[in-house]
Amino acid sequence: MNIAIHHFRLIDTISKEGTLTKAASTLHLTQSALSHQLKELERELGIDVFNRNGKKLHLSEQGYRFLRSAEKILAEIKSLEEDINNYKHGKTGKLSISMQCYTAYHWLPGIIKYYKSRWPDINIQILSDATRRPLEYLMNGDLDIGIIRTQMVNTKIRYEPIFEDRLVAIISKDHPLAKKDVIEIADFQDQELILPLYDPSYQDTPMIEALIQAQQVKPKTLHRIHYTDATIEMVNAGLGISVMADWIVEPYLKNRNIVTKPMHHSVARRAWFAATCKQTPAIINFLECLKMYFSGADMNVAEVEKKQIIQAHATQIQKTLPEPVIPGMINNEVFVTNTVQNHKNYQY
Which of 13, 73, 147, 247 is most buried, judged by most C-beta within 10 A? Predict the structure, then answer.
């Protein structure tokens, strides 16, 4: 049978209105056009949907059966339209997020809480499995947003600057190095050094290790630990020194026997980006939340002020970005060592 959606709407409306005249007005049709559509449907079905009694129409037995299906189908179509509109406006859907660093996840709950307060029906997933290879997950369609430092030259990936940070040394207050104003790579000689794990197969050597190798510095022991909390506690107990981004370690400084010391200026400031392959409303909304959070803005300000803050923050970041990525490189972060070399590939 060749039955279209407008046939279901036709029978539903005629049944509710009771006459062709009222139904035609509701459907914004002429009465002759409505009569033609009804006859067309009855011809297609091979039955009378309505029994005529003057101007009044009464559903036939099979007409009632048709109406029951029409009500279910129209209700489902309405629900579908609502779902699609909600998705298009970023009100429903799912969002998968990952960081290119295990030690950077502690700030996500605050942003997610704010985001969920505005878009409660978005299902947010944090993919910690994608931490080591966020761009691969992004390209495979398994990740929506990757907060990354390492860039890959690929026209499918869009990078938006989010914030900058700088590495600092984390040292027990009782450690001899705590007396220094600035920590250099050479200071790691014969020290118990605690650094995050990394995946050598990703060809992205951590920055500190690259510098240690370049300057032929030999720590006493190099410990590799996944998580910030464990690293902080080891440093607090005087079991070693570590290096982290300033914004990551800041929440851990209170009530602990640790201090942070700036690394030598040869360690460059680093830009972080939000990497995406698509721009759905849910993704765009989350990117705005990220920019607000790292601009230090009040997450409860009015919409107009939010946009002004975001724009000002984006402009400031753009002014301080490193040079564009050179084709063939996987990272555009640059720092200078005593051997006057440019190391392009690193994490921390």
Answer: 147
